[in-house]
Design goal:
Shape: globular
Strand content: 15-25%
Largest sheet: 9 strands, mixed
Number of strands: 9
Mean pLDDT: 90
Helix content: 40-55%
Structural class: alpha+beta
Low-confidence stretches: none
CATH class: Alpha Beta
Radius of gyration: 22 Å
CATH architecture: 2-Layer Sandwich
Length: 314
Amino acid sequence: MSNLKDIETEIKNINTLLKNKYEEIFSMDMNRFRTEILNKAGKIKTLKKLSSDELLKFGLVVGVDGSTNRVGGAYPHYIELFQALAKPTVGERIFLNECYTPMIDGIIDNREFENKNRDKMLADIELKAALKSIEQHRPKILMMDGGLIRYKINNSDGYNELIENAEKNDVILVGVIKDLKTNIISRSVNRAENIYDREILYGRLLKGEIFEVFDAYNNKFQEGGLVSAFLRTSNSAMMVGLDLIESQREYLTDIANLVYTLTPENSRGVPLWLDIVDSEVKITDAIIKAMLEEYLDRDIYERFFISERDRRSL
């Protein structure tokens, strides 16, 4: 039987370590925090909810997201499915799908390679869906689920092609980031770089406020030509992030107002349209299993892609 007392001690230790690490910042009152910390890294503005007529002026909005799921066991005996969806507020959805298994490539087992390959394939298929949407839907706004810099990291050519097409077709390209992983604020005030914006900003903006990041502290501006901001769009104390390409900087406030308007007050802070896209693009375990059982020879399926754990339930 597990020693629950030892587990309890370990969890309490983690709690103490985290409290000590963030004590100075977490203990600051709101006014001091905003003056001494936030004002160094950017500027705070107030957003507004848009009227129906103002929303209509934005025109067609397309949300783009991707999903991946795998079936099987340890490397290389698995198969992974990738799916991307570009969903317009009016018109037909665009679905794209790809499959991958290391059984075909015969690459030496390497966890870092696997993760990079997965990230690249997911970025590739999302970029393809976004480009196809520009061609087919001609949207005014292309709203990507996640930060834009990951496309440059995983597929620089595809990222540049997307920017070129967006600019050429007057499409405003925006990334909406649900889970912040940057450390902009801690770097701006010379704090430890492993203190992240996600926890620093928790509850530090009022609902309906935007924090526009100064380019000088924004690595994404230096590396990818992106301007960034953090928003509190709902009653949730958690922030969301925005990325826009530098040539479209003038639209930052307008897009932030749009995101604020499209986000339900009692939600986790994400625009409803992206939540809908996210739910529709998901590849569930049941779907992937059913498709493999249907389209793979039974011998191929059992020989290559059923793990020992799965066999126990057969």
